Structure formats: C-alpha cells, structure tokens
C-alpha cells in the first residue's frame, strides 16, 4: 500500500500526529502507527447486530479506519471517546480522522483530544478547502499502510462494532460493503426521502453500470490493502456518487465483493435529511454516466 509522503502535502494540509518522546526513531514511521501485541480477543457486536466475531491472535491483521468529518463539533467529542475506548481493545487498529475543511471547531477539538490522549492509534489530517467526502476518504487512504483499509462515517452513523464484522469478512473477500437493506424492515433507520433516493439511485446504477447491489452508499466499506491501492488510484469522483464508483472499479478489476448488514444508529436516524430528490437525482444520473464515460475513454486503465 502506497503512503502519502509528508513532504508532498500542500501547505494547506495539516498533519496531526501524536508521538511520545520515549519512542525510538525506528518506531516512528511517517503515516504509519506502531502497534502493540496481538492478544486473542472476543468481540461482541452492538445491540441489534445478531452475530459475534471470535478473533484468534494470528487473525489480528492490522487495519486503518478512515473517518471523514465536516463541521461535526456537536458530536466529535463523543465520537472520539468511542474511538478511544475501541482502540483499547483493538491494538491492531489505527484511526485517521480527515477534517474536510470544517469551518467550526471540529479541528481544534480533535487536536486537543489527540494531544491529551497521548495515543498513537489516532491521527488527524486537516486541510482548509472542503473537497467532499470522496476526497477526504481518498486523502486518508493515501496515509494507510496496513492489511485492511476501511472508512466509516465520522458521526458514527454506524457503530464501531461493525468494524469487527467488516474486517472478519475481509479475511475472505477483497472488498466488503455495508448494506442497510440487509437489516430487517423497520430497523433500517432511514427516513422516507433517503429510502426513495436510494431506490432511485440503485435502479439507475443497475441500468447504467450493471451493478447488482441494493445499497452502495452506506458509509461503511472495507478493502484489502492491495485492493484499496488499485481502486483509489483510479478514483475520479469525490462527491455524492464516489461510493458507487469504488464498487464499479472493484468489479472491473476483478475483486471479490461481499456485503454485511449496516445498522443505522438512532442518533443518525433522527438527523434532518439534506437529500433533495430532484437535484440529487440529476447529480446521480450525471455521475453514473461520467463513470461509464471514464471507463469507455480508458481513464480507469
């Protein structure tokens, strides 16, 4: 997995990383975290997620979790606390918050919490101009150098417990995507406008891109290190439809793809939807044709 060298970052990027003075230079790898040992662990998924995952020491592959955030000052503190607690029982995981040009105090809060925590499992990448979720995820991916690379919504729309399920599945597949449609009806946590937009998008995707998946936009996806490098190196879209482009590229490159149920958190389910059915449908249609055009013109080669 390629790394994103610090010297090549623009002056508008700010790389926040906590290092302890007692660490030796050999333990300080740019963009890569040092990990503790790998004890056996049994992980129980959150309430409503019907499976547990047992992980033996030899199965504890290293994973990087990218968490894009934009103007999340209201919830970023609780998100950080949840990530810290998760790290304590998952020494093989590293988290990279990517601050996508927030105009509120998201960056300052994260910087202070990381400094106070003195952990090397959590890092922060910030830049001034908002690039979109797809751009934020791609920037975080460039910093990863682990067996698995995943991304998860920074507001914890899906609990961290999903990561155990996601990485366990990655032991068998190259790409794993969260699917809200695999959750029993009534427990999907989706507003009507989101459900309608999702059905429209998936219908268009099947017709234009020949993709069979019923939910391609849940902010919960994982990749093997090799797959992540090849897929994100070809990524062109950075906005609303970047998720479907990633899946299209995974299929085009011959990677195996699996799905896991994605349970939406109660707090996220009550958020006011920003979906504009007409405007966003037009954007989706344009992006889907752009993916086709990029493929036809050889941009994905």
Rg for CA atoms: 19 Å
In the residues, how many domains can be counted? 1
Q: What structural class do you assign from the helix and strand content?
A: alpha/beta
Number of strands: 10
Report the principal-axis shape: globular
H/I helix tally: 9
The poorly predicted ranges are 1-13, 15-58
CATH architecture: Alpha-Beta Complex
Helix content: 25-40%
From the 3D structure, determine the CATH topology.
Answer: Spore Coat Polysaccharide Biosynthesis Protein SpsA, Chain A
How would you characterize this protein structure?
With 301 residues, the protein is an alpha/beta fold. It has helices at residues 76-89, 106-117, 133-141, 162-170, 192-209, 225-232, 242-252, 266-269, 277-296; strands spanning 13-16, 41-44, 52-55, 63-69, 93-100, 122-127, 148-152, 175-179, 220-224, 257-261. The chain has a single domain (6-189, 215-235, 257-263), classed as Alpha-Beta Complex (Spore Coat Polysaccharide Biosynthesis Protein SpsA, Chain A), CATH 3.90.550. The chain is built from nine helices and ten strands. It has an eight-stranded mixed β-sheet, sandwiched between helices. Strand 5 (93-100), helix 2 and strand 6 form a beta-alpha-beta unit. Helix 5 (192-209) packs parallel to helix 9. The radius of gyration is 19 Å and the shape is globular. 43% of the residues are buried.
Reconstruct the topology from this structure:
Elements: E1 13-16, E2 41-44, E3 52-55, E4 63-69, H1 76-89, E5 93-100, H2 106-117, E6 122-127, H3 133-141, E7 148-152, H4 162-170, E8 175-179, H5 192-209, E9 220-224, H6 225-232, H7 242-252, E10 257-261, H8 266-269, H9 277-296
Parallel strand pairs: 4-5, 4-7, 5-6, 8-10
Antiparallel strand pairs: 1-6, 2-3, 7-9, 8-9
Helix pairs in contact: 1-2, 5-9
